[in-house]
Amino acid sequence: MHMMRAARTLKSRIQARLDLAANASSTRAAWLGVFLFIVLMVTREGMETGLLLGTLLFQMKAVHILMGALSGLFAAAFLAFLWSRYGQRVDLRRFLQVTAIFLLVFVVQLLVYGVHELAEGNIFPNSTVIHDATEAYGPDEIYGKWLSFGLVAIPLAWLVVSYLAERISSRELHKKRSHELHKLHENPIDSKLDSAI
């Protein structure tokens, strides 16, 4: 919910802060701050990737890990190329709204699946009843599959509906302005008298 509210002004706030940092009296401090931020982010992502790959090496064959890592690396490079080329066209407000909706559906899925698994482990009182009630919501059952489908379908539906709503409102605004201009050109004297009154 926070991201849905903050998304409206996030892009302008980020740009304002970057402009402020770039125009600071000490450009060296600004450069160092951005450099350290990038080093921190790359290091964090690298450590996360290393941890996941190390865990997977104990569970799968090395050939599968190597193929997956290389295909992931090429996919990431391709996405980075696309983002650097077309990223400025992304509507940040809409992107953050869709991401928030995806995360909301994901949290619901995790909550349902977590309650199901905890009930299976007899953690709750009346675990059998809870387990039986949530069995259909497991990842391999009918409602669990619908929740997984909803991870894509619900954010996509929001994206389509918000896009269409924006197009319709901009079309109506354009119609209204065209009608006002047409009225102004038909009766320029009457329009000037109406506006003066």
Could you describe the 3D structure shown?
The protein starts with a helix and ends with a helix. Helix 4 packs across helix 5 (127-134) and helix 6 (142-186) crosses helix 7 (188-196). The protein contains seven helices and no strands. It is 86% helix and 0% strand. The model has no long low-confidence stretch (mean pLDDT 81). It is mostly helical and 197 residues long. It is extended. It has a domain at 92-197.
Summarize the structure.
The chain is mainly α and 197 residues long. It has helices at residues 2-22, 27-59, 62-86, 92-120, 127-134, 142-186, 188-196. The chain has 7 helices and no strands.
Radius of gyration: 26 Å
Proportion in helices: over 70%
Provide the β-strand percentage band. under 5%
> Unreliable stretches, pLDDT < 50, 5 or more residues?
none
Continuous helix count:
7
Helix/sheet category? mainly alpha
What are its keywords?
197 residues; mainly alpha; 86% helix
Write the topology of this structure.
Layout: H1 2-22, H2 27-59, H3 62-86, H4 92-120, H5 127-134, H6 142-186, H7 188-196
Helix pairs in contact: 1-4, 4-5, 4-6, 6-7
